[in-house]
Write a structure and sequence with these properties.
The chain is mainly alpha-helical. The two termini are about 25 Å apart. The chain has 18 helices and no strands.
Length: about 450
């Protein structure tokens, strides 16, 4: 019996909307955070932005594992495998302790050296190092929020993580006002505010996770031996996802380092524009989460028709939505930049970049939704291959040529970035269209 397309569409929207709201509102509140720091001057903005790519790189570890968790938890939920859900819940707790501890010590230990590695100006290196060290201290809570929030989303609860993460971001804004302005602590105050909000969000997410009935008695699961088969299945998805994140993040580090060498004003415009663009492609990531969840559930239920409908509807909705957000980005590029900086030069240059990238938003959306489908299917290797070639063979190589050989400006650098996004979208579409679907969706899983 074929799945009702209307019901699938409703499920997709119902799951996606809370994630979209969470990400958009979270980004808006982050914008307030950026604006608060930005009005302290270009040096403060550069101090905070210098380590952004490194934060993405380090965060790739828990992100990759959460991709594997999302796929396996949603499949177990669809197949009504209660025992697997309990084991996966226990595994997520153990992984939180391991990843959280590792990231904390790694980040805090490397903090003094990272700004220099990022080719930051000498005048901002100290503040950048202090900022990075402070926000790295509550890494255990950040990881808990990611892993436990992912498990909740995989059992079709996207509202709870939304409420918790939004509350954490609101707290961050209030604490920013207190520490940055009230106590005149500047960049250090922004870091302390973020650290406290990360910790609060992680604690609440942990409490909610341990109380969820879908995961049974987690404490009992923690006392049992690890299920090697489940670990292998999660790893089969998580390892390629990790490699993809490492490739993406390391290339972003190199990309950012090359741009930072173009001068403080150019780097500030670039960093703020990158952050401003985020708001307009976040709806695509919300749909990616919903798509991954429903793809995993369809596999667990062994319903090919449902899987096909989820894929088609998610692609159509994402592209349509990204066309709309691209138009908005083009229209509001200048006032958006002026919200984040008091420098007219930075605002003007950043607005020019946003107008350019607005035309590529549908392609970026296509890439995002295909990633969600592939991760839900467990086809993470194809994303890794395409990401590796595109980021290093197109974005990094062309950016190096533009900056170091042709001596061109930021506009040409952004053309390189757009070319990378379009290539990935087209290649993911092609490779997924020519792949042969499996007749038994559960094949190779739940062994």
């Amino acid at each position: 019996m074929k799945e009702n397309k209307t019901q699938i569409l409703q499920s997709l929207i119902k799951l996606a909307v809370p994630v979209i709201i969470q990400q958009i509102m979270g980004t808006l509140l982050t914008y307030v955070d950026t604006a608060m720091v930005g009005h302290l001057g270009e040096k403060a903005t550069a101090s905070v932005s210098t380590t952004t790519s490194i934060i993405w790189l380090i965060s790739s570890l828990p992100y990759a594992f959460s991709v594997g968790l999302m796929a396996m938890v949603s499949r177990s939920y669809g197949a009504q495998k209660t025992d697997n859900l309990n084991k996966l819940a226990a595994l997520s707790v153990k992984a939180t302790l391991i990843f959280g501890t590792l990231i904390t010590f790694l980040s805090v230990g490397l903090a003094p050296f990272i700004p220099g590695w990022m080719n930051a100006a000498a005048e901002i290196q100290h503040d950048a190092a202090v900022y990075f060290a402070i926000i790295s201290i509550p890494s255990l809570f950040k990881v808990a929020s990611v892993f436990f929030g992912t498990c909740l989303q995989a059992v079709k609860d996207t509202k709870t993580p939304m409420i918790i993460n939004l509350s954490s971001n609101v707290l961050n804004v209030f604490l920013n006002a207190l520490f940055i302005y009230g106590l005149s602590m500047g960049v250090k105050g922004a870091a302390i505010a973020s650290g406290i909000s990360f910790g609060a969000g992680g604690i609440v997410m942990t409490i909610v996770f341990f109380r969820r009935k879908e995961f049974g008695n987690i404490k009992t699961g923690l006392k049992q031996k690890n299920d090697i088969c489940l670990i292998k299945e999660v790893s089969a998805i998580a390892i390629p996802a990790l490699l993809t994140s490492l490739v993406s993040c390391t290339s972003h580090v190199v990309f950012t380092a090359m741009v930072s060498g173009m001068g403080t004003t150019i780097f500030a415009a670039h960093s703020i524009a990158i952050g401003a663009e985020e708001l307009f492609y976040l709806p695509g990531y919300g749909l990616r989460t919903a798509t991954s969840t429903l793809v995993g559930i369809a596999i667990g239920e062994n319903k090919p028709d449902k899987l096909k409908t989820v894929k088609h509807q998610s692609i159509f909705i994402t592209i349509t939505m990204m066309i709309f957000t691209g138009i908005l980005l083009f229209i509001f590029s200048t006032p958006l930049m002026k919200l984040f900086t008091s420098s007219c030069e930075v605002a003007k240059l950043g607005a020019q970049m946003l107008k350019i990238v607005a035309f590529s938003e549908p392609f970026f959306g296509l890439t995002i939704v295909w990633e969600g489908i592939c991760y839900g299917l467990g086809k993470a290797k194809r994303i890794f291959i395409i990401e590796s070639f595109s980021m290093w063979g197109i974005r990094i190589l062309s950016t190096y040529i533009v900056i170091n050989i042709l001596n061109l400006g930021l506009k040409e650098v952004w053309y390189c970035m757009i070319l990378d996004n379009i290539f990935k979208a087209l290649m993911l579409t092609l490779i997924n269209l020519i792949s042969v679907p499996e007749k038994n969706l559960r094949s190779g899983f739940f062994s």
